[in-house]
Design brief:
- The chain is α+β, with helices and mostly antiparallel strands and 160 residues long.
- It has two domains: 85 residues, no CATH class; 47 residues, Roll (2,3-Dihydroxybiphenyl 1,2-Dioxygenase, domain 1).
- The protein is built from three helices and nine strands.
- The chain has a five-stranded mixed sheet, covered by helices on one side. Strands 6-9-8-7 form a four-stranded mixed sheet, covered by helices on one side.
- The termini are far apart.
């Protein structure tokens, strides 16, 4: 994993490939984990990073490339200098990437992202313009959420 957050190789190895990582911050009771990055595997980190940066209105940190992208939330990410920073998204290129299948299938999703909006119908055109598409399977019975697929094939939801 080509991690650019300054963590030691041992910590990076312990985090594994993909998934959520965390930074350790000090507190009055000792070490407390603080959610730092949610890292999504993908075939091209720059393409997916640009998609989510546009979706959220966030910027991309300097040094981004096809292998690794970290988004920069407006409040700044979690760091020793900004322990109250906001968790953010990062993307890493995987050579043997296979898009998750949902619901079920050979490569089931392990997690998905939910994005809160006040009006799903009004937000949908912007999501589609960025390159997402509406998933065929829509399990919401009351219209409280709608499932989409990002350009790399990850399901995500707009929720009200």
């Amino acid at each position: 994993m080509a991690h650019r957050r300054g963590l030691s190789p041992a910590v990076m190895d312990a985090c594994g490939r993909g998934g959520a990582t965390f930074a350790l911050m000090t507190s009055s009771r000792g070490l407390k984990p603080v959610l730092d990055l949610i890292v999504l595997d993908c075939p091209d980190a720059l393409v997916l990073g640009e998609f989510y940066a546009s979706l959220l209105g966030w910027s991309i940190e300097d040094g981004a490339d096809r292998d690794w992208v970290t988004l920069a939330p407006p409040e700044g990410g979690v760091s020793p200098q900004n322990p109250q920073g906001r968790p953010t998204l990062a993307f890493q290129r995987i050579d043997d990437w296979v898009a998750p299948t949902w619901p079920g299938g050979d490569h089931p999703q392990q997690f998905h992202l939910d994005f809160s909006v006040s009006d799903i119908d009004a937000a949908e055109p912007g999501v589609l313009a960025l390159g997402a598409h509406v998933h065929d399977h829509q399990p919401s019975k009351d219209g409280g959420f709608r499932v989409y697929v990002d350009p790399a094939g990850h399901p995500f939801c707009l929720v009200r």
